[in-house]
Amino acid sequence: MSDRTYGIVGTGALGGYYGGLLARSGCEVHFLAHSDVDHIRDNGLKVESKAGDFHLSDVSVFGTPEEMPACDVVIVALKTTQNHLLAELLPPIVKADGCVLVLQNGLDIEQEATAVVGADRTLSGCCFLCSNKVGPGHIRHLDYGRIEFGEFLGNGVSERVGDIGQDFASATISVTPSPDIRLTRWRKLVWNIPFNGLSVALDASTADIMECFDGTEMAKTLMEEVVASAAAEGYSIDESFVEKMLEDTRKMVPYDSSMRVDHKLGRPMEVEAIFGNPVRAAAAAGHDARRMEMLYRHLKFVDARNVRNLK
Amino acid sequence: MSDRTYGIVGTGALGGYYGGLLARSGCEVHFLAHSDVDHIRDNGLKVESKAGDFHLSDVSVFGTPEEMPACDVVIVALKTTQNHLLAELLPPIVKADGCVLVLQNGLDIEQEATAVVGADRTLSGCCFLCSNKVGPGHIRHLDYGRIEFGEFLGNGVSERVGDIGQDFASATISVTPSPDIRLTRWRKLVWNIPFNGLSVALDASTADIMECFDGTEMAKTLMEEVVASAAAEGYSIDESFVEKMLEDTRKMVPYDSSMRVDHKLGRPMEVEAIFGNPVRAAAAAGHDARRMEMLYRHLKFVDARNVRNLK
User: Fold this and answer.
1) CA–CA separation, B229 vs B186, rounded Å?
2) Which residue among A215, A217, A301 sits closest to B214, beta carbon to beta carbon?
3) Where are the domains of chain A?
4) The domain over range A183-310 is classified in CATH as 3.20.20.140
5) Which of A56, A204, A296, B38 can bridge A208 by disulfide, Cβ–Cβ 3.0-4.6 Å?
6) In contact, B113 and B103? CB cutoff 8 Å
7) What number of C-beta contacts closer than 8 Å exist between A and B?
8) CB B37 within 8 A of CB B68
9) Which of A218, A290, A301 sits opposite B202 (nearest CB)?
């Protein structure tokens, strides 16, 4: 158990799960929550998991950043659609020599964090996690959970990343240090771009997509465009990775991507993080990712209609 | 009034309308119908049109091709999804020196006709028509109606095309002879590919698409791919045509494309005629039409699900 203190911004499916595990392991963890503050303060945090259910009765939870103690490591566990809030949320809760670890989907999603603490104090990671918030202060962890993270500035694995990784490992969180997080993000996009996007565009589960020849071809050709986009930036992803991702998906239980879940619930989707930013990055690197762009525009169309329908 | 006899295969929104006009003008017209045969025989054919309603009480209509007299000009007015029927329907109803005029959407949709009567006896045309069948033997013509047609083999405007065009004109059908029907078809696809496809993929009317920046961009970039696909085959379409099509669509009343109508009614969509054949033609000519292909696969996915749901 280290003496590093952790702050969790967003106590949902991801922040509630990882923060809960860190707190259970004995770390000092402070949670910033929104709608669930009172419930968690009164009833604690409940995590159901196939690795073992647990309940934290005494949780340090706050409704505003001003009330919360400044922490050594602040984990951003919001959806990227909430990142505009970070300019206000982060300054009070990061120690002067602390750092921010952004655990979000997509590409180029660290700007709001680097704007507050600087690129050299920003860490970035991808989570391979199936988890849902099923009620106030109530998380249901379904499967997986590994975090791959590293310095935003890359350049190998820093001591800081190693230390935080130790805390995670002590909390039974599987970690892989990433010497180049941008490569990690491109690799994750190889799955996220086709399956988040097509699940909404086609209104289909992973199994629906993989059971149809044309669904599988769409997924495959999109994956190839992600690989080509990464290559245009100088990031090499082996072609066999595409086949492996398809094969893994074929074997998965029918699964609704996070974007499909958001869509079904009428929530804003992470369209810019997962689609807009990669399409723009590819274009800037000279690659015309036309299939990705089609899907990007499709999702923006659907997202705008969702937002209108909610009004 | 000529002594050419006309056969109409498919007495729906298109065949009922044009065949009705030809019959009204005094031409000898025989209709091949499916579900509506008895109704039309008993009650005639009713056409509502802003150009003037009319009712034909004595209609020569048949339920099987064997009963029907052979005609000089047989007009194919089925959906292309029914073209597999032509091998049986056409032989009894085309005179030995007669010809077949295929009035259907899409590209490379003449094969079933040429297989029966030969390429040199096949004519081909595109209709710019808004018309619906609203009940048995009951057609509602909404707007437009021009036919652009020519020899399947191209090579300018034949005498035959001129003669049939005269009959159409006498029947108040606006006609434009096409010296190269494949160019005409590519030009029509500039509109049909984006607006038939996106209306189903996005579940949107033409107005919904044009009111959204991303919808309009999808339509525009798809149009550019159609123009590039045609160019790969040696067919030149001016770039200004794309802007004109967008502008015309912007001014249209909100309209459901024929594919969206089919989709809403759970009917098979003309996916191969309007998407599959153009994508394959572009690929054969060396152009990789990736956006068109994405939309093609999307529609095949949706079409297969529709068919499954009907079972």
Assistant:
1) 9
2) A301
3) 5-179, 183-310
4) no
5) A204
6) no
7) 54
8) no
9) A301
How far apart CA A94 and CA B49 sit, in angstroms, is: 72
Instruction: Find the closest chain B residue to A300 by CA distance.
Output: B214
Q: Is A166 on the interface with B (CB under 8 A)?
A: no
Q: Does B289 touch chain A (CB under 8 A)?
A: no
Instruction: Provide the ipTM.
Output: 0.92
CA torsion sign for B196, B201, B206, B210 is negative
Tell the residue number behind the tokens 């085309």, with chain if given.
B94
User: Which listed residue (B46, B188, B264, B300) is catalytic?
Assistant: B188
Residue % of chain A over a pLDDT of 90: 93
Closest to B294 (Cβ–Cβ): which among A212, A291, A301?
Answer: A291
Burial of residue A108 (CB within 10 Å: 0-12, 13-18, 19+) is: middle
The rounded Cα A148 to chain-centroid distance in angstroms is 11
d(CA A78, CA A104): 7
What is A5-179's CATH number, 3.40.50.720, 1.50.40.10, 1.10.10.10, 3.40.630.30?
A: 3.40.50.720
Q: Do A218 and B291 touch (CB under 8 A)?
A: no
Query: What residue of A is the nearest CA neighbor of B210?
Result: A301
- Name the pLDDT band for A210 (thresholds 50, 70, 90): very high
- Given this chain, do its domains B5-179 and B183-310 carry the same CATH topology? no
pLDDT digits (tens, 9 = 90+) for B98-157: 999 999 999 999 999 999 999 999 999 999 998 989 999 999 998 899 999 999 999 889
**Strand B45-49, strand B54-56: pairing:** antiparallel
CB atoms within 10 A of CB A309: 8
CB contact under 8 A, A214 and B297: yes
